[in-house]
Structure formats: structure tokens, C-alpha cells
Design goal:
The chain has a five-stranded parallel beta sheet with strand order 1-9-6-7-8, sandwiched between helices. The protein has helices at residues 22-38, 55-66, 81-88, 101-111, 130-152, 170-180, 200-207, 233-239, 248-260, 267-280, 285-291, 312-317; strands at residues 5-10, 47-51, 70-75, 93-96, 117-119, 161-165, 189-195, 242-246, 299-304. It is α/β, with parallel strands linked by helices. The protein is built from twelve helices and nine strands. It binds pyridoxal-5'-phosphate. Residues 19, 21, 53, 55-56, 122, 165-172, 222-223, 225, 268-269, 305-306 line the site of pyridoxal-5'-phosphate.
Length: 318
């Protein structure tokens, strides 16, 4: 692809789970419980309520089980039965919703109005922004590790481009915050990658305002979200350099290539390689390469946010 080195941030094993999501869920759950304790409230078990395409809900359920709390997870259509089973195995109550992710989020928010329940969501909307903000803070660990790990590889100045898989944009918010708030130094170009079936951030950037899109089916299940997070949107608009949507077949091919290179990468994680390829090959590639400031010695980081074990679609696709 005409760049120097491509590194993969491998999130196939994070806190015992096969996706990066536990970074955000653990911090959001910790802050939520710490706040209750600080309020002097009886530490009676809470029900942590959430909606998920798979990974976030599993991470919330995992944290609830480890911390002696309960979890109630709303799962939209299109999530593989084995992904649902993984949430049930964390002893969570699961409600399957006959609709898309955005509907599951609404139902979870309603259910969280019950006594002793709290919504731990990884996306925000006006009036519900604090806990999703903690989730984003949790993701920042991943960026700090990239800096450390690249320094160890002799790339102390950091990457020239980071390719980010985007669902509601909370992870991308963390990445933008990290790379755009450093007082000095080299700022990488930031590329958002979404499935063609759910490109709400690409559509919002094109229109210049946050919009919801009607989502379809995709193997990139964790990215199958129709509405950008309200707190992420200002960061995405100001901080992303490029956005692209990729097809399932492109992500499947990328997952195969990463597997050949020894990296376990599910469809969402491999989307970042597919997105990079779309940007840097084919008609207009030279213009895009120049616009992103990339050359033959550039360093690229792909965020591979899930292993094949996170998403049963991955094992059936290959
Ligand atoms: C594996 C994986 N990668 C990336 C994302 C995208 O994160 P966000 O929804 O914060 O954009 C998700 C979200 O669920 C995910 O599960």
C-alpha cells in the first residue's frame, strides 16, 4: 500500500475477553459503583442495564458478575446466538429485541428506570452523557499503550495514520482526544471505518450534522449502529481526517490476511485494514495518500478491536 510499516493493535484478549470493550465497561462500572458508595448508599446489588451488539454487553455482564452485581442486557436482531450465549454465560439476563441496535438502546434506557437499576451504555444522547463519557475514558488506555509500544519499536514520534473501526464513535472519540490534545509533537491522520450497512458517521460528516441512518445486516456486528454518540460527534467532526465505509467481503478478506500474518481479528477489527486498503489503493489513491500526508516511510496503526472469538460470524465466514 505504499507505506513504510503497518502495526496492528491486537485486542483479541483484553481482561479475559476477546474485544477491547472491557476497557470502557470496567471503568464505567467502577465509576458508577464508586459514586454510589460515595453517596453513602447501601451497597445492595445493582442491576447494570445495557444494550449491545455483543462485545459491550458481554463486558458489562462480566464486570457485574465479578463485582457481585446483576446485569440485564438488551440484544438487537442480527447478533449471533453464540454471542448471546456468551452474555448469558456471564449470568446476565438477556432480552432479545426484534429490531436494530438503536431500538435496543431505547428499551435498555427504559428498563434502567426500575429501582436499583442503572444504565451503563457506551453511547450518549442529550441528557445521558456522563456514564458514556467514563466509557470513553476507559478506552484511552489503548492509545497510551500504542504510544508505549511504538516507542519500544523505535517509533517514538508516533504513528502517521490510525485506522479506527466506528460504530457509535466512542472509541474514535477516545482516539481523537488522545492524539489531538497532545501539546506538541506529531499528530497522525485519523481514519474512521464503518460498514456500508451502517455508515452513520460517514453520513453525518457528509451532511455536516449528526444524523441517524437505517441500518442493514453486516458481519461487522459491533459496528452496526445507526446513530453517532452525542458526545463523540464534536470530536469526530473536528478530529477525523477521513471516513470510509467498507463491504463485508472486504473485511472478510482483511481478516484472512491478518490471520495469515498471525493476528486473530474478527470482522470489526479487520475492517480497519479493509478501510486502509480502500483509501490507499484503486482510482484516486495517490490523491488520498497525499491528502493524508502519507509516504513510503509512514507508520500506520490498525486498531483490531476484536479477535475471531468475539464474533461467531468470523468463524463461519472463513
Ligand atoms: C469489536 C468492536 N470494534 C469497534 C467498535 C466500535 O466502537 P464504537 O461503537 O465506540 O464506535 C465496537 C463497538 O461495539 C466493537 O464491538
Amino acid at each position: 500500500m505504499g507505506v513504510g510499516r503497518v502495526f496492528v493493535k491486537d485486542e483479541s484478549c483484553r481482561l479475559g475477553l476477546p474485544a477491547f470493550k472491557a476497557l470502557g465497561a470496567s471503568w464505567a462500572v467502577h465509576r458508577t459503583l464508586a459514586e454510589q458508595a460515595a453517596n453513602g448508599e447501601e451497597p445492595a446489588p445493582l442491576t447494570l442495564v445495557t444494550a449491545t451488539d455483543g462485545n459491550h454487553g458481554r463486558a458489562v455482564a462480566h464486570m457485574a458478575r465479578r463485582l457481585g452485581q446483576r446485569a440485564h442486557v438488551f440484544v438487537p436482531q442480527g447478533v449471533h446466538p453464540r454471542a448471546v450465549a456468551a452474555i448469558v454465560a456471564e449470568q446476565a439476563k438477556v432480552t432479545e429485541v426484534p429490531g436494530p441496535y438503536d431500538d435496543a438502546v431505547c428499551l435498555a434506557a427504559e428498563a434502567a428506570n426500575a429501582p436499583d437499576a442503572v444504565l451503563v451504555q457506551d453511547t450518549a444522547w442529550p441528557g445521558y452523557e456522563r456514564i458514556p463519557g467514563w466509557t470513553v475514558e476507559g478506552y484511552s488506555t489503548l492509545c497510551a499503550e500504542i504510544d508505549e509500544q511504538l516507542t519500544a519499536e523505535g517509533v517514538a514520534e508516533g504513528p502517521d495514520l490510525v485506522s479506527i473501526p466506528v460504530g457509535v464513535g466512542s472509541l474514535a472519540q477516545a482516539v481523537v482526544t488522545h492524539y489531538r490534545s497532545r501539546p506538541t509533537g506529531h499528530a497522525p491522520a485519523l481514519l474512521s471505518v464503518e460498514p456500508e450497512a451502517a455508515a452513520c458517521v460517514l453520513e453525518s460528516l457528509t451532511r455536516g450534522e449528526p444524523v441517524s441512518v437505517t441500518t442493514g445486516e453486516t458481519a461487522m456486528v459491533g459496528l452496526n449502529c445507526g446513530t453517532p454518540s452525542s458526545i463523540a460527534w464534536p470530536y469526530l467532526r473536528a478530529g477525523l481526517d477521513a471516513a470510509v465505509a467498507v463491504a463485508d467481503a472486504d473485511s472478510a478478506r482483511a481478516a484472512g490476511d491478518l490471520a495469515t500474518a498471525g493476528v486473530s481479528s474478527g470482522p470489526c477489527g479487520a475492517a480497519t485494514l479493509a478501510g486502509l486498503r480502500t483509501m490507499l489503493t484503486g482510482i484516486g489513491a495517490e490523491e488520498r495518500r497525499t491528502a493524508l500526508g502519507l509516504g513510503p516511510s509512514s507508520v500506520v496503526v490498525l486498531l483490531s478491536t476484536e479477535g475471531t472469538a468475539a464474533n461467531p460470524h468470523a468463524t463461519t465466514d472463513h
